[in-house]
Design a protein that fits this description.
The complex is a heterodimer of chains A (276) and B (78). In chain A, strands 2-1-3-4-6-5-8-7 form an 8-stranded mixed sheet, with helices on both faces. Chain A has helices spanning 27-42, 61-64, 77-87, 99-105, 107-116, 161-168, 181-193, 219-229, 233-237, 241-244, 261-271, and strands at residues 49-53, 68-71, 92-98, 120-126, 172-177, 198-203, 230-232, 248-255. In chain A, β5 (172-177), α7 and β6 form a beta-alpha-beta unit. Chain A has a single domain (18-271), classed as Rossmann fold. Chain A is α/β, with parallel strands linked by helices. Chain A is globular, with a radius of gyration of 19 Å. In chain A, 36% of the residues lie in helices and 17% in strands. Chain B has one domain: 2-Layer Sandwich (Alpha-Beta Plaits). Helix content of chain B is 13%, strand content 21%. Chain B has helices at residues 30-34, 61-65, and strands at 16-20, 40-42, 48-50, 71-75. In chain B, the strands form 2 sheets. Chain B has a two-stranded antiparallel sheet. In chain B, strands 2-3 form a two-stranded antiparallel sheet. The chains are: A alpha/beta (276), B alpha+beta (78). The A-B interface holds A 1-6, 8-9, 12, 18-20, 22-30, 33-34, 180-182, 185, 207, 218-220, 223, 227 and B 1-3, 19, 21, 23-30, 33-34, 63-70, 72, 74, 78.
């Protein structure tokens, strides 16, 4: 283990076979670092946080991070989170999913958790592909991209996770890329601090299963792509629809105050008091 | 944004040092490619190392970006 005053080493389970299993240049490591720093700043103790992940490369985060953790079945991370939040409302529940987890097999859970406005922070790490299983097409793979299961090009349009979450009723929706690491850290901190269902989409890079299929041969080229294609909300306001076509909007996209599921349930219980 | 800072290299005293933990480094090259001061270089084995301690202003960008938690930017004295 490296020596130093590096804050994140306090939050890593270094007995879990480090260096970690992610490929060289994978965005998950950078995300995990930003996440741990944001949690450290938020003031929550390790025991107050429940970290839940699904299946895939992102699922491994719950193994490496030293909180109360749950490594659940594919796509069901949000259902486990719902159960925990309703039985132990005092815990801070954070769900980390991949794009396959959140929008494919768990798509239904994702929109319904947003609709209920549960007090859960949901982070979707979007690398546009199923990385761990060999580079199959995911609901986030852009059109015409060749993957192992779309050898002649993808014919299905990808979801816009942020628009999906907004339409389903999420209270806070934000997006960042891995390249914008400081913005990512700030947005994670903001999502952890507020109540309601918070969705954070992280555009990540998968150099091995995605990058080399779209002509981005190294993690450096993939990060350069993120740098070139991301526009902040302030910048996007001054740009035309045509210019924004192949751009990624980053920053906080939706920020609404709405009563959470728990609050509505408590209000209902209160209204029954005194009724025979 | 750390990379949109001043591009000209400022001569600063080597108050910071960049420690690379080779046991965890996977040689992805991100730190060397995106260092705002171009203060890092790749050694003959592909690991990053500090070119000139005076070129580094200790911004910590490499530490934040490293996907393998293998870089620590510290005060030179410690």
């Amino acid at each position: 283990m490296p020596n130093g005053r590096h804050i994140i080493y306090d939050y890593l389970r270094t007995t879990k076979r480090f260096p970690h299993m992610w490929c060289p240049g994978c965005g998950l490591g950078t995300f995990l670092g930003a996440f741990l720093r944001a949690v450290d700043k938020s003031g929550y103790t390790k025991d107050q946080i429940v970290l839940i992940s699904g299946i895939g490369c992102s699922g491994r985060i719950s193994t490496y991070a030293d909180f109360n953790t749950l490594h659940t079945t594919h796509g069901r991370a949000l259902t486990f989170a719902t159960g925990i939040k309703l039985t132990k409302p005092g815990l801070k529940v954070i769900v980390i999913m991949g794009d396959g987890d959140a929008t494919a097999i768990g798509g239904n859970h994702f929109i319904h958790a947003a609709r209920r406005n549960l007090d859960i922070t949901a982070i979707v790490i979007n690398n546009s592909v199923y990385g761990m299983t060999g580079g199959q097409v995911s609901p986030e793979t852009p059109l015409d991209v060749r993957t192992t299961t779309s050898p002649y090009g993808n014919v299905e349009s990808p979801f816009d996770i942020c628009k999906l979450a907004e339409a389903a009723g999420a209270a806070f929706v934000a997006r960042s890329t891995v390249y914008h690491v400081k913005l990512m850290e700030r947005l994670i901190g903001r999502a952890i601090d507020r109540k309601g269902f918070d969705v954070l989409e992280i555009i990540s890079q998968c150099p091995v299963q995605y990058g080399r299929r779209v002509g981005l041969k190294s993690p450096v080229e993939m990060l350069q792509w993120q740098k070139d294609h991301a526009v902040t909300q302030e910048k996007a306001r001054g740009m035309s629809e045509e210019d924004l076509k192949d751009k990624i909007r980053i920053g906080a996209l939706v920020d609404n105050e709405a009563p959470t599921y728990q609050e509505k349930l408590d209000a209902m219980k209160q209204s029954f008091k005194g009724v025979e | 944004m750390a990379t949109t800072g001043k591009s000209k290299t400022k001569e600063t005293s080597p108050s910071k040092t960049v420690k690379v933990y080779k046991g965890w480094c996977k040689r992805c090259g991100i730190c060397v490619a995106f260092c705002p001061r171009q203060a890092l270089e790749t050694d003959k084995d592909g690991y990053p190392s500090l070119k000139d301690p005076r070129g580094c202003d200790g911004c910590g960008w490499c530490e934040l970006m490293c996907p393998d938690f293998a870089i620590v930017v510290e005060d030179a004295k410690s």
